[in-house]
Structure formats: structure tokens, C-alpha cells
Amino acid sequence: MGATDRLDRHQPLTLGLFRIVIGLLFTSEGAATLFGVLDRDATPAGDWPFWYAGVIELVCGALVLLGVLTRAAAFLSSGAMAFAYFTEHQPDGLFPLQNGGLSPALFCWGFLLLVFFGPGSLSLSGVFRRDTAPGSRG
User: Rounded to two decimals, what is the model's pTM?
Assistant: First the structure.
């Protein structure tokens, strides 16, 4: 058994851990925006687009974290981060390091990865689905 085979065997677990971390980070962004925690002021309810982004971050981040409706939540999150990047950051410079848009860019591409690869292992959807292997769909 080669090194690649050993690494391949751990892909579902690694993908599941990636999903949990990105979901937790996104959820914390939403909580900070909506509730004014983690050294951030709360955004007033209904304030476009920041309050709505906070709702998406909190709800979709929690869904991704738990591995429930992962692909749909990741798709919405990826789109929201692309919108944030191009409307709030890209006008200030072409590259994320120039315009302060590194987080939205990374979130966008990380969630897009989950859209195509699914939740990996350690997901609630995998626990409740008996007809497929854990982490294969979601």
C-alpha cells in the first residue's frame, strides 16, 4: 500500500473536519454580525446587505457545521461570499490582499468545494442515511 492509498483512505474524515471548521468559522462571522459578539458591533436589523449576510452566515454556517443540507447551504454561502467580494472588496483593488477580501474569497472557494464534494464524514445527514456510506452524499 502506497502513501497515496493511505492518504486516500482518510479523505472522508479530512473533508468532514474541513466542513466542521469552515462551518464554525462562518457561523462565528454571522454571530458577530448579528449579535455584536467577538469584538464586533451588531449590525442593525434589516441593514442591507450586512444584516442579511449575517443571517446567511449564521444559518448556513450552522447547517454546514452540522452536515445537514450541506450542499445547498454551501451553495448559498459561496454565492453570498462571491457577492460580498465583488460588491464590497473588488472595487478597492484587483487582488484580495489589496482590497481586504481574503476571507470572502477563501470562504467562497471553500464552500464551492463542499458543493461538489459533499459533507465528508462526521455529518448528521450521514448518521441518518442508511442507504449510502457516511460522507458520500449530502
Answer: 0.89
